[in-house]
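Researcher: For the record, we're logging two predictions in this thread. I'll number them. Prediction 1 follows.
Model: Prediction 1, sequence and structure:
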Amino acid sequence: MAIVVNMPRLSDTMEEGTVASWLKKVGDRIEEGDILAEIETDKATMEFESFNEGILLHIGVQEGETTKVDELLAIIGEEGEDISALIEGGSNADEDISENISEDISEVTLETEATAKAPESSTAEMPEGVIVVTMPRLSDTMEEGTVASWLKNVGDFVEEGEILAEIETDKATMEFESFNEGTLLHIGLSVGESASVDDLLAIIGPEGTDVSGIAQNFKPVTAETQTEEAAKTKIESPAPTVVVETPKVEPPKSEDPLTTMATNGRIYISPLAKKIAEEKGIALGQVQGTGENGRIIKRDVENFSPTSAPSVATVPKFVASGQEDFDEVNHSQMRKVIAKRLGESKFSAPHYYLAVEFDMDNTIAFRKQYNSIPETKISFNDIVVKACALSLRQHPQVNSQWFEDRMRLNNHVHIGVAVAVEDGLVVPVVKFANAQSLPQIGAAVKDFAGRARQKKLTPQEMEGSTFTISNLGMFGIESFTSIINQPNSAILSVGTIVEKPVVKEGEIVVGNTMKLTLACDHRTVDGATGAAFLQTLKGYIENPVTMLV
């Protein structure tokens, strides 16, 4: 029977996906674990593997094209199979397929890996020993999860406490342990596919149990469905699922030296990584692959630093004089989400801005003396973080958060530090920053920044900020304004230190100043409150020794 493969949801904010490249073409034989395509999401470009075998009968989205989550991506089946009805039906075609499924289950009792159960008033019964494992909630903000990898194959026996899969949110990838034991009978999401919390992830039970009907007709039991239909099991067909086994990535069958692997002098590389390498002029022989079997993937090329051989210079596009010319670049998924969230913040929170300029002479001298201590190195940004943390303890209104029905005045200080990553921005959080020393803050920020660019931060490391700092001083920006990172009430924009003439004690002398701009949500922070906070901050930054008292 043909299987409809839909556009997966690869992050909890993803609404659309773009096909970066197809690694298989119509007519090719697909094996379990083969990489079908590379999908660009709002967070990254990920390899999408097939966990079914058969012939690739149809491709629904061409390279460079974008489609919504759960829309038709491809169809896999037997050679010569008639799939015209599936193509016409698109992502809803599985409803037609499900009509042929026998509905001989009298009751379904659902149990998640966290031992969450369906209402006891359910009127049917799950086959004895069978447990439906649903997508877990791995953070307090998680709504959907993406399967990064399966550590068990269908047919494997799973012990309680064993790692079943790695689940990716939009922020990190976390191991997911099994809280039950039994044979892995069914896997509902392929690697790279996403589902909402409590949707079908897998089925565990006695070996040989037929669970095809359960898998096809599963619908999560939520608080709403429990209230509305606690006396019966609600069944509907989910998006087509595919059977997953541990990926067995086969090298691309290509004689192109850029798409083969380092065996017999050849190199394996994903098409997207190849494209980036060509654009950057990177010699692939110098790149170490970290993908399956040493395959070079996108992150390997992006993180590559030339060691010896010079890179080929990128040649600017030639445009004849007097000729109009342009290139169009589709929005990445991350850029779309950033635009949506910042737009919501800008137009829902009444922003206003308070700009100040601080004398940095004492701060420069303080940092120089502090860094003279062996094995110690702090940055100006570390000083700003510490000064803000101490100031926020004295001004809880600025350290507040706005919610629809209440305002939260935080007595703890968790400072988010904005870090630029490829085509976007993430905000790791320095927890209890007021209680940390300058070297501790410096080490934490440096570690966060490095792992943020490698997308190795955990969700917990990017949650719970009460205030945010955005620093563009290292880029020579003197002043700018930022958009508040909701639900926080304020964000501080930090510019570069500028040497210029200043007036001190009635005389013009050479001095060093730094401009800062505080963006406030007027619903929680009045102008006088924001100004008082900046006065306190001024005392700490202009006299940083007071932070050590």
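Researcher: Logged. Prediction 2.
Model: Prediction 2, sequence and structure:
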Amino acid sequence: MLSSMRKHAQSWATRGVFFAIIVVFAFWGVGTGLFNRIHPVASVDGRQILASQVTKEAERLRRNLQATYGDQAAGLLKTINLRQQALDLIIDRHLLEAEAKRLGLRISNQALKLQIAAQRSFQSNGQFDERLYREVLRDNNLVPAEYESATRSMMLINTLRQVVTRSVTVSNAEARLVYNLENLQLSLAYVELPYAKFEADVHPTPKQIEAYYQAHKNEFREPERIQLLYVFYDPATLARTFNPSDEQRAAFYRTNLKTLFTHPESVRARHILIAVPKGASPAEDLAAKTGAEQILKQLRAGASFKKLARKYSDDEGTRDRGGELGFFTRGELVKHFEDAAFGSKPGTFVIARTRFGYHVIQVEEVRKAHVDTEAEARAAIDQALRRQVGLKLARQAADRDLSSALAGGDLRALARKHHLEAVETPFFAPAEAPDVLARDVDVLRAVFGLKSGEVRALNGTHGPFLVKLLGRKAAYVPDFAQIQPAVRAALARSLAEDEALAAARKLLAQVKSPANFAAVAAAQGLKVHATGSFSRSTRVVPGVGEFVEVTDAAARVPATPAMIGRAMEHRGNAYVFEVVSRRSPDETQWNEAASQFERKLLTDRRMQVWQDFLNTLKARARIIVDTNQLGTGAPA
């Protein structure tokens, strides 16, 4: 819910002045990297892509994610192989640039100039500032020619995209049909048969257990483990003696004044959501409103907001935090919510109605709009400058030490020169990695791709590493005698799941029509649960969880009420479902959503056409990838 309410993960005030640069370089890998200079990572129709380009592109992607998602970026980065993503982007860029040039497309110098001048990061008082432009680029270790070439490349690809996709259209009638299908209001009834209720009656024999082990050995496989010696070049340690000059502080403050040190009015608040589903009846809306008003009375009488939020709130994203939303500025949440919050004083309570339902809001703190003085911002400025200097020193040190290590130098001695520590790990699997490695999925993938004794420098999220693989233990399957209890437990669950599904099928066979569903279930001592009305667009069945198979099946039954004609399985539990009712969005709902939905559908269709076009270019190109340099075996 919170992610839906927030229009942006972070306000511009926290993204930093360099966002425009990051966006450009997400299209464009440039420069000479510090590490891995010898072999190309890939080639596209004979055009080589060096490991240094991939490393720098991956760093640009990392900064892009961090600028866009703020504190949420760390979790997202754990799920992404940045080097693979970076390589894919560079390959795409090569193919698209070549095709654009083949079609005779070009970007004029005047168009390039206007594009750069329009970037907010390079403007003072709304006008392009040549001095600021060069200053910002210099702070990012760039020169104008480099940035301008990257921008021209991005513009060329965007022009090609417009040529490819501009013929794609979506009619109002077509959009309405898609909208109706995606936003059906469903009401289901279901019987749940948990596998756990069948486990007590499952008694596998020793022979069955051993046979299960033989048939499912890979499920019990112990993962590959490695042992490392590594040095993490901590930027904070390497920059510990650096003290910025007054001139450096002033330049950083001036460059980042509008983005880092100018703060709009913000509010910190909590909320309790009493949800109102799309298409709710007046009675349902009134019930939700009455519930919110009752909570408001309890709060004004001194009840704990946290306890009431945990008990009543329908916002799963904030419920366990007592409804805490943190600070937000105007434009981050939905308008009616913001209007209520910004119009209230700290400590007061108010109810707001949004498209999600009724919110009981407590305003905790209000911060007026303000601009930090350079003196007030000094600590933050010093920290940012030390981080910049520390990263530069770390990369330089790792680069020098790599050469020494490849020549036989001892990593422990190299680390001591910088007041750092060389860490020797025990053997570990990816899920058991030390925290400093576990927080950087790209580095972790890369170290598992090393050969025994190999030394490499790797660019991590928080700084570079120098790593040496000391040993490797291959994956293996333990002997049956060692893991017999675990095998028995796995077999018992599997048999119990089969029993649950068989019971669900038997129940469904006895249900002649929706009218006797409840009677058949009651005869077997089973309870029929009701979901109430919910939107298919959520893909979530209330009381069960995300269950796309069911929401799709409910949309396909010819008429309602009707039984879904097969037993369903979810996390080992078995289900029988009835579609009680199904209703398309009404005219009012469509009119409210039409403009935005048509734009989204058109965007989605054009994205698909663009992706198909790119896939065609890839299919006819000759692309060769050295996956060993990506820390993954996945092809480009």
